[in-house]
Amino acid sequence: PVVASNRINTPEQAEQLIADGQADMVSLARPLLADPDFVSKTASGASSSINTCIGCNQACLDNAFTGRLTTCMVNPAACRQAEFEIAPAAKGKRIAVLGGGPAGLACAVTAAKRGHKVALFEADIEIGGQFNLARRIPGKEDYAETIRYFKNRLDELDVEVRYGRPASLADLESGGFDEIVVATGVHPRRLDIPGADHPSVMTYVEAITNPADVGTEVAIIGAGGIGFDVAALLSHPQGAHDPSQPDIERFSSEWGIDLSYTQPGALLAANHKWPSARKVHLLQRKARDSFGAGLSKTRGWANFLEVMFRGVTMTGDVTYLKIDDAGLHIEAGGKPQTLKVDTIVVCAGQEPADDALSFARSLGKPVHAIGG
Known about the structure:
There is one protein chain. By secondary structure, the protein is α/β, with parallel strands linked by helices. It folds into three domains: 1-85, no CATH class; 88-185 and 353-372, NAD(P)-binding Rossmann-like Domain (Rossmann fold, 3-Layer(aba) Sandwich), CATH 3.40.50; 191-237 and 275-349, FAD/NAD(P)-binding domain (3-Layer(bba) Sandwich), CATH 3.50.50.60. It has 13 helices and 17 strands. It has helices at 11-19, 30-34, 38-43, 61-64, 102-113, 131-134, 143-156, 169-174, 204-209, 225-235, 248-255, 300-309, 356-361, and strands spanning 3-5, 25-27, 94-98, 117-121, 160-162, 179-182, 186-188, 201-203, 217-221, 279-283, 313-315, 318-324, 327-332, 335-339, 343-346, 350-352, 367-369. The radius of gyration is 23 Å and the shape is flat.
């Protein structure tokens, strides 16, 4: 018998593998951490309500290989069920949740499940918050499944969702709320050097949302997780794809997998020159040898290799001097240089977007700040 495993994320994928004769059985591990009711939901025809594994590895494999408790980023109750008992509330309340990112969504669903009446306010025209950015990154497309899951749960639990503008003081005053939860997330940190407002400068939010507006040569300021994600997106020839229709031939060619199984170990000769859509410079203040140090233990190596194979240059020990029409002026290792780039994308951290806290507290109701 042949047992297929790894990133079989949906009942439909599992069924298709067996129906096509590619496997006799399928094996699931991470998907059952994300949703322990995966099988029962499938059997009852409720597969659309499955909380899908997004393959981030941050709380499962990364934790397992560093001696910490294995759990799940999209289901923090995994392996911690005794800590996460969701009991009915002694008294139902009316709750306002400000922000429809992951924290706000989890709060709204949990509160509604306990019997509270919940109104969720989302400034954007869709829920998801930072996950709406992550799902646009090649290799992170499955983050959209978490948004899909929460949309379904909000409907099932009759949560009122108000889209398209942030909650106002008038909304909270007139809503009759007993408690308010502020989960308004973060916004990109601004660059503090001369020329930071130059037209060539974009935030990572702008670059991820509108990559077509990015020029052909790009400097990325900041090489943390977001910087690597932006580098992967801007250098990728096609961008994000539909996870249900993977480009297996392209993936296999780039990573050296022999689909004909004629080579030893089904491995092709190493290919370290992948196509790239742009010339990308990835910059950081830290030393060159620390690039990628903060990435996922079990995924970070692949993130690092991908941007390297697409020709992204990585420069450390950088001091940012100014931005003008000539480009980005820096010192690298103490030596001044000018990067003549079309676009500069700032990935230099985040700051709390908590302006709503002050007016929420002015109402004299219990206020809780989460997420961010």
